Recover the amino acids of this structure.
């Protein structure tokens, strides 16, 4: 079957559909008219309520130790390790950048030394 372009009956956007379709509603209008699934809303609410003391991406870290001693491995709490490890340091974006820049400068300095040694050998 061929494809035909129709306009959304609510917002007049162009939607490409198969022949034989009489009326269409675009995906945006459909999304606006239906609420989000309850399982997703529970997860979102949980993330916002748990946010205190947790950095972005803590659920995907191999191991994250919260300030109160709770230990998480890839987002799952390990109760047997509670209070046995030091808290994971939470670095700000600028601190991470400073560390990265320092490593890059050290690497460049090392490469410069190698270059100078090669030039001396060549002479």
């Amino acid at each position: 079957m061929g494809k035909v372009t129709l306009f959304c009956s609510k917002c007049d956007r162009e939607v490409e559909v198969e022949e034989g379709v009489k009326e269409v509603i675009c995906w945006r209008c459909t999304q606006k008219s239906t609420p989000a699934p309850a399982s997703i809303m529970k997860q979102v609410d949980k993330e916002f309520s748990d946010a205190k003391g947790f950095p972005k991406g803590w659920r995907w870290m191999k191991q994250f130790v919260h300030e109160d001693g709770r230990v998480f491995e890839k987002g799952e709490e390990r109760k047997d390790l509670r209070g046995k490890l030091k808290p994971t340091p939470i670095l700000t974006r600028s601190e991470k950048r400073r560390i990265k820049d320092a490593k890059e400068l050290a690497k460049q300095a090392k490469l410069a030394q190698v270059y100078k040694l090669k030039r001396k050998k060549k002479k």
User: Anything to note?
Assistant: The first helix runs from residue 27 to 33.
